[in-house]
Amino acid sequence: MSEFLAYLQLGFEHITDSKGYDHILFIMALCTVYTLVDWKKVIILVTAFTLGHSVTLALATLGFVSVNPDVIELLIPITIVITAAINFSYKDIKSRNRNASQGVNGRYFLALLFGLIHGLGFSNYLRALLGKEADIVNPLLGFNIGLELGQLIIVFIVLTIAFVLVEIVRVARVSWVHILSGIIAGMALSLIINNEFLSTII
């Protein structure tokens, strides 16, 4: 149990670590168009992202999948830029009534697909921690649950800030979405430009 809790803490710290903020940026980009009143839609998104990264985290950690870590480190900020860019097509809920469900479905598959890529990034870190450890089931489970707890906290913070600004302060929802998405996209583009692997292939 102590091993499980140790890896749970490591998983939590990994996704909430401000030094490795790429995963935080993606979760923020994914949730930018929502506030606390949209919690049902956010549950769908979080579930999709969880399914995606849980699958590749397990497969890669167990040795069934192997992808160049440098490629993954480049792909992760690309997923952030794409997600943030899609946010710029957001329209206020009042003007998108009939297309609302289609938008949710699209973001669901986006979260699932990009979750697969982020799971490979998580696995690189976890495998470095495990080393030659024989039993990896408990560490894998603990680490994944730690990731989820950290992820939920990030989501809650983003949704709460959005709720306060949009529902209470009455900032235009579209303005909030566009401003935050622009900041996220800019930070992700910086990660892409400074990526060492990219510089070797250009």
Description:
The chain crosses the membrane at residues 20-37, 42-65, 71-88, 108-129, 149-169, 176-193. With 202 residues, the protein is mostly helical. The protein has one domain (2-201). Helices cover 78% and strands 0% of the residues. It contains 8 helices and no strands. Helix 1 (2-16) runs parallel beside helix 6, helix 2 runs parallel beside helix 4 (69-87) and helix 2 (22-31) crosses helix 6. The radius of gyration is 17 Å and the shape is globular. The termini are far apart.
Class from secondary-structure proportions = mainly alpha
Secondary-structure element series: HHHHHHHH
Number of strands: 0
Low-pLDDT sequence parts: 95-102
What is the average per-residue confidence, as pLDDT, rounded to a whole number? 89
Amino-to-carboxy terminus distance: 47 Å
Portion in beta strands: under 5%
Shape: globular
Total domain modules: 1
Biggest sheet features: none
Fraction of residues in H or I helices: over 70%
Radius of gyration, taken over Cα atoms and rounded to an integer in Å: 17 Å
